[in-house]
Request: fold
Amino acid sequence: MIRLLAVQQKDRELLWNIHQKYLYEMTNYYDDPMDGAGNYHYGHFDAYFSDPQRTAYFLYEDDALVGFAMLHPYSCIAETPDHTLAEFTIFPAHRRRRLAFDAANLLLKEHPGRWEIKYNEKNTAAKRLWNMVAAPYSPEVVHLNDTETVLLFTKEPEQHPPV
Reply:
């Protein structure tokens, strides 16, 4: 069972380390060079520890760390989302077990509202995942260019029957 654990200041180094591995993997889709220290630049990383509107989560399956997600409310297409998915991954050893789908749906459940999710068209796994996750919400599809697509949709809060 997937669960979210909010990243705290004490977790900064762990998030930095796994985020760097993720950025390396993203070089399959983006031409981002390493710096002289062997790291990939991510201009907003520190903001996840200073901007209260940014939230990062570790994704766990039971006690195993299997991925992370990073959210903020800032649009890349001049919209006004409540939540923008900045970064999301399930580590390669844990893929193909529906964990990404379950984690994405848990994020939506925990953060209802207007969502903006961008993916690279060359990343066929991400494209398949995000279109499947967004499908129940009839997303608006915005093609930024030949390689990037944004999905806009609203996830309403879940209604619980009165007790």
